[in-house]
Amino acid sequence: MKANRRDFLRLTSLLGAASIIPNNRIFTGTVKAVGPTDCVLIPSETAGPFPLDLTENTFYFRQDIREDRTGVQLNMKMKIMGIENCGPMQNVRVNVWHCDKDGLYSGYDTIGNPGQQGLTYLRGYQMTDAFGDVEFITILPGWYPGRVCHIHFQVYVSSAYAAISQLTFDVEAKNDIYLAYPELYTKGIDPVLPENDNVFADGYEYQLSPLTPNSGTGGYDGYLEVNVQGSGTLGIGHIEKETAKQFVLGQNHPNPYQSETTIPFVLKNTSNVKLELWDISGKKQAVLNRGELFPGEHKILVNLFETGLSQGNYIYQLEVRNSAGIFRQCMMMTSEK
């Protein structure tokens, strides 16, 4: 299964491991208003000292990123929009990472962050659905000296462009939670205001999430709209070009779907083909083998009842094998709400 999950994440090497282009610069957004649509690019912020490479270990593809961390549950939803038309962007990857309730980050052992080497809590990524949405199940982060409570995120649109930024929370709502759970948040209220934080001092209007009580979880919901460059996936990198020589994968239709949907693709060369379905927690749920197919247009019908799957969002990965190698690409299929 580990090898299969690593292969699955070949998609995320498309939506990938590092947003590096030939001149080794990382493209990120800057604040910019555009026209009457009033979409504004998410401000670009540092990734911080603890980003890690979330694609190196495939278990980071998950919705619940808490692991063993205690804290008030936070369901953090983000909607990714393209500034060209203020429309939702689907099939882009969103990475998140943040500290725990005590201000510690997983993965490092430093003077200010002792004993966390090799740990993986509070890190993960998802792919946006047909509405441009992703949602993570996590905890409300704590704070550490010099920084206001925050969450790091990266919107990986393609291997040529990624937007890296941070979000913070409504100050009063956040501190009310800290005060209500002193046994968890032992440091008390956050002493830093966003305007006094070096990251947010130049403004945080587009990086501020509310905190809304969730009666179902007993925790809170957060929400942020994130505007990035483009109105769809931008930039074609090396891996995408090599895949395009072999096949073109289309978006399933209808999408959103109810119980049945069709996945179209075009083969450039005779190849062995299979389709894999993964749930958003990162578990492979079904494999549809189609054997050897000739060049041309093809479709794979996915019926949830026939495959024994429940209603929900799934990642579908098409794998194509031929004399040139093994090629894979993934997209998200979205369930009707």
Calculate the mean pLDDT score and round it: 86
The name of the CATH architecture of the largest domain is Sandwich
Output the CATH class name of the largest domain.
Answer: Mainly Beta
Number of domains: 2
Low-confidence stretches: 1-37
Give the termini separation.
Answer: 31 Å
CATH topology of the largest domain: Protocatechuate 3,4-Dioxygenase, subunit A
Oligomeric assembly: single chain
Per the principal axes of the C-alpha atoms, what is the gross shape?
A: elongated
| Tally of alpha and pi helices | 5
Helix-strand category = mainly beta
Listing every helix as H and every strand as E from the N terminus to the C terminus, the arrangement reads HHEEEEEEEEEHEEEHEEEEEHEE
Describe the structure in your own words:
- By secondary structure, this protein is mostly beta strands.
- It has helices at 2-8, 10-14, 171-180, 238-244, 304-307; strands spanning 33-34, 39-40, 73-82, 87-88, 93-97, 123-127, 133-139, 151-158, 161-169, 208-209, 212-213, 220-228, 247-249, 260-267, 271-279, 284-293, 296-303, 314-322, 325-333.
- The chain is elongated, with a radius of gyration of 21 Å.
